Amino acid sequence: MSDIFEYLNTTFEEGLSYNEAETGQSWVLVSAPTIKEVCKFLRDDEELRFNYLMCLSGVHYPKENELEAVYHLHSTIHGHTLVLKVRVPEEEPHVPSVESIWKTANWHEREAYDLVGIHFEGHPDLRRILTPQDWEGHPLRKDYEQQESYRGVTTGI
Amino acid sequence: MKTEVLTQEADKRTMTINMGPQHPSTHGVLRLEVTVDGEVVKKAKPDIGYLHRCFEKYAESLGDYAKVVPYTDRIDYVSAINQEMGYVIAVEKLLELEIPERVEYMRVILAELQRIASHLLGIGTFGLDLGAFTPFLYCFIEREKILRILEKASGARLLYNYICIGGLMRDIPDDFKTETREFISSFRPKIDELNELLTTNSIFIDRTANIGVLPEEVALNYGASGPMLRGSGVSWDIRKNDTYSIYDRFEFDIPVGSGEVGTTGDCWDRYIVRVREMIESLKIIEQALDQMPDEGDVQEAVPRRVRPKEGEVYVRTETPRGELGYYIVSDNSSGPYRVKARTPSFVNLSILPAISKGALVSDLVAIVGSIDIVLGGVDR
Lengths: 157, 380
Hints:
- The structure holds two protein chains of two kinds.
- Chain A has helices spanning 2-11, 35-44, 105-115, and strands spanning 16-19, 23-24, 27-30, 52-61, 66-74, 81-89, 94-96, 119-121, 149-150, 153-154.
- Chain A is of the alpha/beta class.
- A five-stranded mixed sheet of chain A has the order 1-3-6-5-4, with helices on one face. In chain A, strands 7-8 form a two-stranded parallel ribbon.
- In chain A, a hairpin with a 6-residue loop joins strand 5 (66-74) and strand 6.
- The radius of gyration of chain A is 17 Å and the shape is elongated.
- Chain A starts with a helix and ends with a strand.
- By secondary structure, chain B is α+β, with helices and mostly antiparallel strands.
- In chain B, 46% of the residues lie in helices and 13% in strands.
- In chain B, the strands form three sheets. A three-stranded antiparallel sheet of chain B has the order 1-2-3, with no helix packed on it. A three-stranded antiparallel sheet of chain B has the order 6-7-8.
- In chain B, helix 4 (101-129) packs antiparallel against helix 5 and helix 4 (101-129) runs antiparallel to helix 11 (267-291).
- Chain B is globular and about 70 Å long.
- At the A-B interface, strand 2, strand 4 and helix 3 of A face helix 1, helix 8, strand 6, strand 7 and strand 8 of B.
- Strand 2 (23-24) of chain A pairs parallel with strand 6 (311-319) of chain B.
- Chain B: Its main location: membrane.
- Chain B: NDH-1 is composed of 14 different subunits. Subunits NuoB, C, D, E, F, and G constitute the peripheral sector of the complex.
- Chain B: It is a peripheral membrane protein.
- Chain B: Its EC number is 7.1.1.-.
- Chain B: Keywords: Cell membrane, Membrane, NAD, Oxidoreductase, Quinone, Translocase, Transport, Ubiquinone.
């Protein structure tokens, strides 16, 4: 994975940093404004050809006041994988959508929006997906407080 | 079908109807908002979330890695062993744990038995969606035999909680091997019967060939996996291409769709991939039974205390419906900081709008059936 980062670094001078993990998998941190460009490059470059977005997850880090979008990429052509991360502040959680690059991001981004509250800019249909449209709050935030009643029905707290 | 007129557009040609939330072909709670022009589907929009059980929220609030295992069973309740296995492997990877040989073989045998059981259900109900009742009964008789074997080992019929971090809950019963071998020899001729009833049946071919065609590039772009992806002609199986557990020790083929009776990537191709995968699973089970060591404590490597170091993993395994990925973030506490389950049903269902345009309403039933979704896996 560090090879792929070196290769990426020659194309993108700014907005990338590599994080070597002691346990588990390492990742590349990408700044929010460049994520779409980086993803497009990752998909189209002959050497990389990341044609498969395996997973997109949202994570909340309350200590840093940040939300994180994690992208797990894979290339069925070359057989390599890559983990990308984008960190955005809790108050303005805007991340450019990669839906136009991998269609599968459509539902994954909707889920991350629904459960963690990341706003994916440029998503064609950014609605809640697992909870009702008029649900309050984002359930997978660490400081989430469940609403007491929903449409006059108690939610059991 | 329960239909209800929602809107009538100005040109009075199209109409939006609800298919579901409860519909015999959706095998769970799924609402499809279908815009039709007569019998032709103009647009089909899935609306999910009715079954949402907050798996991820539970997992993160339990504060114990081991306690999450029973909840993973409920993600896709017709292939619970495969769901457990993926999660357990992910945690073991975080812990950098060595698993005893015997346990690895047992897990593979259980996972492949479960794959056959799950495909039998998928195939049987797919036929049922298209009006074929007899194959459904045939499939369920065979599936029952597998459930009996799994029940004898784990004590449960559907939600096993049998695989645990580092090993298995208990050893397999003494007659497990003989019973499994008996099942294999009795099951092989049944597949031929099934082929006669469904695969080569001309009505079945008419209802499934050239319908819901999913081209290779679209499948990859949408992140399709499992039989859905292989039906489109992509030879991609995590067990082989990104191998885990001990799958690299077995010889088996990856069946792919090739448009034998229609177009590559149609409903028939997705169906036939499942049928042929069952035969491959039988091969794996036979090899595993031969190679499995007879002695060994299945609880040997089970850790007293599960507390991985800070770090994160994304581990994917091949379940009957495709790629099941667990993204787990550890903050060095006794429970996961974040668990995301990337389920194949969720991703495969998102392709439905792309492949149902222009189909007839009755074809839509075939398309939904051919995806073989389990709504528990979609909503988690």
